[in-house]
Design brief:
- This protein has 112 residues and is of the alpha+beta class.
- It has three helices and four strands.
- The chain has helices spanning 3-21, 52-57, 75-85, and strands at residues 27-33, 38-45, 89-95, 99-107.
- A four-stranded antiparallel beta sheet has the order 1-2-4-3.
- Strand 3 and strand 4 (99-107) form a beta hairpin.
- Helix 1 packs antiparallel against helix 3 (75-85).
Length: 112
C-alpha cells in the first residue's frame, strides 16, 4: 500500500474519532501481525459511537452525520476504497455511547 494512502486512511479515522470524543476522550492505535499473511491496525475511541442505521451507511460516499459545512461524507468511503485496493479489509464495531473500533487488515508486504 502506498505510504501516503496509508497515512490518509489513518488521518481520516483519527479525525472521525476526534469529532466523536468531543472535549474529553481517548483514541488508540494498535498495530500487530495478525498471522503469517496479515497485519492488523486497530483504531479505537471511547466516543459517542454509532447507531445501527448509521453503521450500515458509514462507508457510503457522501454520507455524514456532521453538521453542514463540517464534513463531506467521503472520509470512511475513501478509507475503505484504499484498503480494498491494497488487498485488505476494513471492519468495525460500534455502539451508541460505547465508542467505535475500526480494524484494518492488510496483506503483509515481504521486502526483497
Amino acid at each position: 500500500m502506498d505510504v501516503d494512502h496509508f497515512g490518509l486512511a489513518i488521518i481520516n479515522i483519527a479525525a472521525n474519532s476526534r469529532d466523536a470524543i468531543a472535549d474529553i476522550g481517548t483514541f488508540h492505535i494498535q498495530a500487530a501481525r495478525s498471522d503469517e499473511a496479515w497485519v492488523s491496525l486497530t483504531c479505537s475511541d471511547d466516543g459517542v459511537g454509532m447507531s445501527e442505521d448509521v453503521r450500515m451507511q458509514a462507508f457510503e460516499a457522501f454520507f455524514t452525520t456532521k453538521p453542514s459545512g463540517m464534513g463531506t461524507g467521503l472520509g470512511l468511503s475513501v478509507v475503505r476504497d484504499m484498503i480494498v485496493q491494497a488487498g485488505g479489509k476494513v471492519e468495525f464495531d460500534t455502539q451508541p455511547k460505547r465508542g467505535t473500533t475500526v480494524r484494518i487488515l492488510l496483506p503483509l508486504a515481504v521486502g526483497s
